[in-house]
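Hey forum,

I'm writing up a methods section and want to include a predicted complex as supplementary material. The small molecule is S-adenosylmethionine. I've pasted the protein sequence and the SMILES. Can someone with a working setup run it? I'll credit the forum in the acknowledgements.
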Amino acid sequence: MELISFKKLIEKTCGLTFEESRETALISGIKTRLAATGISDENRYFSRILADKEEFHRLIDLLTINETYFFREPSYINLFAEKVLPSFLQKQPVGKKIHVLSAGCSTGEEPYSLAMALSEKFGPGFKKIVSIHGADIDHGALNHARVGRYRRHSFRNISETLKGRYFFSEEAGLFGITDEIKGSVFFHQFNLLQDAVPAGIPPLHVIFYRNVSIYFSPEIQQAIFSKLAESLIPGGYLFVGAGETLSHNSGVLPLVEMEGIFVFHKSSSENLKEDSQSPKSAASASRPLTLRAVANHHTTHGFKPSRQYKTPTNSTDGVASEGRFEGIPEEILSLLRDEKYSTARQKVDEMLRLAPDNHVLTLYKAGILVNLGEFDETDRLCRILLKAAPLCLEAYLLLGLSSKARGDEIFALKCFKDALYVQSSCWFARFQLAEIHRNRGKARQAKDEYQAVIDLLDHEPDADSQLAKFPLLFHPAQIRQICALQILRIGKGV
Ligand SMILES: C[S@@+](CC[C@H](N)C(=O)[O-])C[C@H]1O[C@@H](n2cnc3c(N)ncnc32)[C@H](O)[C@@H]1O
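Reply by user p_vandermeer:
Happy to help. Structure tokens for the complex are below, copy them as they are.
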């Protein structure tokens, strides 16, 4: 089948490229429409789509990739609900709404996730302060979004609590979203390449544009990103997917770091004056230590807190098997997500009273104490764990984190090296070594370690699952991204 003219038209009109690996999808779409229209060959069909806009859109609907699910990359959604939106609310005149767009929203899971996160944070009244828009080129996907009924694959990353709160079971395997959430999102059909944002939407405070640009050429990516940046108010935020950040870091918008996550932030005269509340520019970024990402990560990767904790057999020397406690309850994970460390500590203490020898709880307590700045007690707990199990990887990591936070970089280096003796593929230990070398001005060693982290994340089959064994910090994709940025900066002598 002659595809060149189809490819050119589709790329010029809506940005989608069809390299060799995706040609079969294009052929299959054309064949489906040939059968539906009764047109005998592709040349005639090509003339038809040139003349008939609706038929062209029917073809496009078959060619878009609509993969999405609720709470995809949840750390971005948390950052939006917990930090970004509240920062606007402080400044927003009463009665004026905050406007948010999910550009390339597919079947609606992304904007509905934003609405659920806001409902969790502010209660049902969030609709009075925020308006959420979802927009996509694909008519079929938008219809699906407006109906708001979803099957199992959309729920792969949402907690049972949220699913129970915001969905009701319809027929077998099908769940409808509640009217409260459905009514809070406005859907629009648009073409990013032509419209940037749907007509009639006021200037935007936040744009989510995630997992859309991957199907565009670099030139088109750049053009769309620039137009989206123009549609933001000064001080607005643009979220792209973790894997898309570097390709958009071309100077159109500054990249800033908040809570260990990189987002694009349109400057306003106000936030040029850096204060402690302002996001850090990527160039001066230092990542806060937080267990919140830990709790998020558990959701991301399907970690079930009710499961018996397991560590690699060479890691804890049987420590885990001695624990009687069956897991970390959702209540505690949720407190960690909300950074309510003092309350989390009280809960863990209550549980430790019932199961004083439980090592998983002890590890969690040590992690909470690092966040509370109680480093001596963290160290004491880690040493108890190491006495019981000299190969407890997680205790070395926590001891290293605590020493690093106290400013004892030499001892922290030792702890992270010890962690590597226990498990040489532990990319998190290597990442910490890289950060310490960088702090100490040892650029070459830092660069080597950052590169080692990237290699481990790319090539170690169990790199990702290392995080399931104990609450480590950050999502591997974010760590990889940070390492790549740091290598670039070191290369530029920054
Ligand atoms: C993979 S989905 C991403 C969904 C969601 N943002 C997420 O991260 O889960 C990509 C969406 O981008 C939409 N899209 C592709 N090209 C577009 C264009 N030119 N204008 C508007 N939407 C487009 C597709 O229809 C598809 O629904």
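Some notes you might quote in the supplement: The pocket of S-adenosylmethionine is lined by residues 14-16, 64-68, 72, 104-106, 110, 136-138, 141, 190-193, 210-212 (CB under 6 Å). Confidence is low (pLDDT under 50) at residues 270-278, 282-326.
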